[in-house]
Automatic annotation (TrEMBL):
Source organism phylogeny: Bacteria, Pseudomonadati, Pseudomonadota, Gammaproteobacteria, Methylococcales
Domain of life: Bacteria
Record has Membrane as a keyword: yes
Coiled-coil blocks: 262-311
Protein name, as recorded: FHA domain-containing protein
Organism field: Methyloglobulus morosus KoM1
Length: 558
């Protein structure tokens, strides 16, 4: 036996048996033989009133082995019988391969094994011969009963890895004993059972995986279809908006011409034309009724469009953050201006944020909004825009034009001098009912110039926006602003060259197709960024109240 293996410290032994056979006086008690892992006898003990065994030095039999508990077992006599007690050992006690649960009555002679160490206590009544006892009680599958080579002797020479390979081998090794065959059977039955369970789990996981892939694929197709439907409906809405706006312009023009005709006929007293006039009035009335009904249809389409947008973005879950909130505001303002929110160009949100930062770093907006509130201009602007069915966000256009300063006068240009809060040129103002004064082309204030009248200029501004909205811009709010900024110059010419339908004529396509002037580009983004701030001024660090929010609250209250 090697020195680093089990060390036995004899303690509490009353008598050691002599090595030679001789007659002894038999006394009541137990003879105990301690056998190591290799089947070699280490010590013999004699006890009259029981004993304890374990790793601790206070045991009667001390076994210094890592798998043996400090207090492993106890044997004591009760009513003339000997009983074995497990002292809550970690690895248990075995009697001839059977695990002892708490306690067991001993039928002597018997072999008691300490855990899985192959260390055993051979216990027999005092006076019996040790050799006879060992031959009677040693388990042939664990210890070495004779010099005949058996599976037991082979096991003692095998390493842990070799034993494991034998037990787990697909084919049984020749010469295997009953114990090995029993263990192999248990192992292989367990592996077979586990294999079937794993196979079942794998099938379930496979089915679940295929279902998940199918569900994801279905959702992807469904979302793609919802997005395509939403985009198609968006441009159907834009087309209808353009047609309705053009119809309203035609109705207004026809009504204006008819009113002029009525005035002329009344002055000349040509009453014979009254039937013709009434017929024209009925046509105009019927056309207005048709437009009103189409507007109801338009509202229904917009509601359905929002439903498709929600479906198309249903799985875009993101944690709520300030950046996410601002992105939602930017998307909303784009939608309100009549741009496709599902087709926002890459980098558009970040570009808008740059212009928001400009407003945040300047005193322009707080001063302009204070002027707007002090003069109570907001209700006039919003009323004019609502009359023309235009996005309310256009109210920030005169902010960029003049800071809502009705006395503003622009620089001299070859087209003339722009004046008033909406910065009308004299020629453009005249088209929309604003009479210019005698100082029209001079950079001076003129009390006779209607462009300085905020209410009149606001109504004219809304009509001018409606014209651009329904013609060149094809209901694209951002294109409307680009056209308003440069009026009669080349920007409008570029817009007119684009295909005359909302799908192919919008601001996204415009900035991709043309290198527009920086002044126009900045003009559009300044107004857009101001409209975003106007949705929630406090979020962006401003103290003014949102004009559009106040109007909506008043409308909902009424």
């Amino acid at each position: 036996m090697q020195e680093d293996k089990t060390v036995i410290i004899p303690q509490g032994a009353l008598q050691q048996e002599p090595e030679t056979e001789r007659t002894v006086l038999v006394r009541p008690g137990l003879q105990v033989v301690l056998v190591d892992e290799n089947g070699q006898t280490l010590k013999n003990y004699f006890f009259t009133s029981g004993f304890t065994a374990g790793r601790s030095d206070d045991n009667d039999i001390v076994v210094q082995h890592g798998d043996v508990s400090r207090h492993h077992l106890e044997v004591k006599q009760e009513n003339w019988d000997w009983w074995l007690y497990d002292l809550n050992s970690t690895n248990g006690i075995y009697i001839e391969n059977a695990l002892v649960h708490q306690k067991s009555k001993l039928r002597l002679p018997v072999s008691v094994y300490l855990g899985n160490t192959h260390i055993s206590l051979q216990i027999y009544m005092a006076g019996q011969k040790p050799e006879a006892v060992k031959q009677a009680v040693i388990d042939p599958t664990i210890l070495i009963p004779s010099s005949v080579p058996t599976e037991a002797t082979t096991h003692q020479k095998l390493s842990k890895e070799e034993i494991e390979a034998r037990l787990l081998a697909k084919n049984e090794v020749e010469g295997s004993g009953d114990y090995t065959r029993m263990v192999r059977k248990i192992i292989h039955e367990d592996r077979s059972s586990r294999g079937k369970k794993y196979q079942k789990v794998i099938w379930i996981l496979g089915v679940f995986f295929l279902f998940a892939v199918g569900a994801v694929g279905y959702q992807y197709v469904a979302l793609s279809n919802a997005r395509a439907l939403a985009i198609d409906m968006f441009y159907d809405i834009k087309t209808l908006e353009v047609n309705l706006a053009q119809s309203e312009l035609t109705i207004d023009k026809s009504s204006e011409v008819l009113d002029q005709m009525i005035n002329v006929l009344a002055k000349e007293k040509h009453w014979a034309e009254q039937d013709l006039i009434r017929a024209e009035q009925e046509k105009i009335k019927a056309e207005r009724q048709r437009v009103a009904e189409e507007k109801l249809n338009l509202k229904s389409m917009k509601d359905k469009y929002q439903h498709y947008v929600k479906e198309a973005t249903a799985f875009r879950f993101r944690f709520p953050t300030n950046a996410r909130y601002e992105e939602e505001l930017i998307t909303k303002v784009a939608r309100d201006f009549g741009e496709s929110e599902l087709e926002l160009p890459d980098g558009f949100v970040e570009e808008v944020r740059k212009y928001i930062q400009y407003w945040q770093s300047s005193s322009r907006m707080p001063e302009a909004m204070a002027r707007l509130e002090m003069n109570n201009y907001a209700p006039d602007i919003i009323a004019a825009l609502e009359t023309e069915d235009l996005p309310l966000q256009f109210m920030y256009l005169p902010l960029q034009e003049s800071n809502y300063n009705t006395m503003a006068i622009g620089p001299e240009t070859r087209y003339g001098v722009a004046k008033g809060a909406w910065q009308f040129l004299a020629s453009t103002g005249k088209e929309y009912g604003l009479a210019a004064g005698p100082l029209a082309d001079v950079r001076e204030y003129d009390v006779q110039d209607a462009r300085f009248d905020f209410r009149k200029a606001t109504k004219a501004g809304a009509k001018y926006l409606k014209t651009i909205f329904s013609t060149e811009a094809q209901a694209s709010g951002l294109l409307v602003m680009a056209g308003y900024n440069y009026g009669h110059n080349r920007v409008k010419g570029m817009i007119r060259k684009m295909p005359d339908n909302p799908r192919d004529k919008n601001f996204w396509k415009f900035i991709q197709q043309y290198q527009i002037p920086k002044e126009t580009y900045d003009y559009v983004f300044y107004i857009f960024a101001a409209a975003v701030i106007g949705e929630d001024p406090k979020h962006f660090g401003f103290n003014f109240k949102s004009p559009t929010a106040q109007v909506k609250q008043q409308e909902s209250a009424s």
